[in-house]
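In this section we walk through a basic example: taking a raw amino acid sequence and producing a predicted 3D structure, encoded as discrete structure tokens. The instruction is simple. Fold the sequence below.
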Amino acid sequence: MSATASPLSWSRITRFALIAVISNLVIYGIGSLAGAGWEAGGLTIAWYLVLGATLVPIFIAAGATSLLGLVWKSAAKVMAWIGLIFALVTVPSVFITAPELGTAIALGSMHIIVGLAWFFGIRPRV
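The resulting token sequence is shown next.
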């Protein structure tokens, strides 16, 4: 198999990552105003953790997908679905780790937003 240029658009990935981080910070702000305690799994979740938990996974996974795309033509399409499914499957975990319903709903929403940003940012254009 010959190596080809990665089909990923880093500007597109960056745009969707920024949309996700802004959306998640807005959810964090709304949750805070609504009285969310931001405790989950023994950790107090601060705004900068939301920032990191949104951007770091997207860019690490995009880098891995880019490298994988050099040897596997369908990598971006398959990884887009895997990432979205992973984000959706992990939503129930926040309801287990966050003792407060408001925090759990906000964190679950953030998982969905990151999953959608990943899917639309990484997916090859049709």
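Looking at the output, two observations stand out. The mean pLDDT is 93. The beta strands are 39-40, 43-44. In the next section we compare this with other chains.
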